[in-house]
Please model this.
Amino acid sequence: MEVTLAKALGTCFGVQDAIDEAMSPEFKNSLTIVGQLVHNPQVVEKLKNNGVLLINGIEDIDKIKTKNVMITAHGAADVVKNKLKERGFTVFDASCPLVIRVHKAIKRMVLDGYFPVVIGRGKHVEVKGIVGDLDEFYTIEDEEDIQGLVNLNKSKIGIVSQTTNQTEKTISLIDKIKLACKDADVLFKNTICKPTRDRQIAVDEITDVTDILIVVGGKNSSNTKKLKSVGDHKKVPSYHIESFKEINPDWFINKTHCGITAGTSTPHEVIQKVFDKIKEISSLISQK
Ligand code: SF4
Model:
């Protein structure tokens, strides 16, 4: 069985920069990260081993015991950063520049008179950061949310996207919004980030030639789930795992070509272990 890694996979620069900063020796035992830095259990474990403390979000501000706090790559609203500063914490902002770009885009739209809408999951930390400084907004995750926007009866609608959205689904939602709000001026800025798009394109390509797909990443990582959905959509048996330990050799029986992809917060050493394990299984199968 052939085993191929997708052309683009694993940790993106935004997440990697944030991890590197959090792991720097100056922060050992003196840093609290506000919100999950990455949706990946191995990385979270590594951070905890380095003495980094983690809290779920600003609602846990009273639990912070360190002077230094870090905003994650997912970003945060100014109101959150200011609250931390007001409480006397030194704030290190590891927001990804591509998330900051979304914050700026939506604020620009509001200044230009557009009603702000985000295509994304309202409960996701990135979306909370995008809308956190806005007086009013609307979020759309699925088609059924569109009617709520229609009911608001806005004449100018400005839309951005969560950075990790699936491109096709987002474009399809935009088309449906334009149709449903046909009397409104609908402005869309596609803010899906390049690393996410590269991983989506790469998984699409690899599933053209493979008959099994392994997707590596945290079970709560939305962009990892979206990579798996590409495999599902193309009817390639697809398995979402966090570590090589979850691999079941039976998955590979009668398979000829295995593709591997991984979400934007999956470290390369985790992917390498998955690759090695599948190669091992492949050689065992060929010896039978
Ligand atoms: S997924 Fe995209 S926006 Fe999010 S941290 Fe990575 S590069 Fe930045």
Remarks:
- The chain is about 40% helix and 20% strand.
- The chain has a mean pLDDT of 94.
- The longest strand covers residues 156-161.
- The CA atoms of residues 143 and 172 lie 9 Å apart.
